[in-house]
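Worked Example 4.2. Consider the chain below.
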Amino acid sequence: MTLASSNRVGERALDENHITLNANQRQRLLITCKHVDKLLEDIEETMNATASKSVFPSYAADITPQQRKTIEEYIARIRGQLLQILATQSLGPEEPHISASHAIHVGLTFVEIAIAELAPRYMRGYGPVSQEGAADLNGIVTELQSAVKELHRYVLQPSPGDQQQKVEEMANREIAGDTARGFGHKKQ
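Applying the procedure from the previous section yields the following structure tokens:
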């Protein structure tokens, strides 16, 4: 993507004649900047994880508020440099293609699967399950699934502006599907 077509980086479009790298080099520059940004995102996630209420935390909360602020400032500065570097070659970041609500939906689906695998029929693979153990496992599964399904339903609810967009997307998919199936003839 060039800045001429998407001016996310700055207010001015750069002259295409300013590009000093060939297409492969520009692609590598873009990929490396994207990778560096992802590594910076991982650092942010690590800092956020220390403040998480996770039952099984991965990190000790040993970053002071001042250190966090300084790290965040450096990350912002490095990201600004990435954008400037990309702009020198008339490159810019792509728009996101994955909906956050869709990613949460997928994550919750995996949570539901993990919980379902606590059912007695799956736990028998780890040894015999007593009737009392089976009752406990069924209760655990039911309790956890209930909360996760509530959250899942909430995430799947369309926001006020999304309903019209989803209807249009479904209509477009139906038209595209009909066209592919019957070259424009509606399915009977």
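Residues 16-88 form one domain. The longest helix spans residues 23-50. Compare this with Example 4.1 before moving on.
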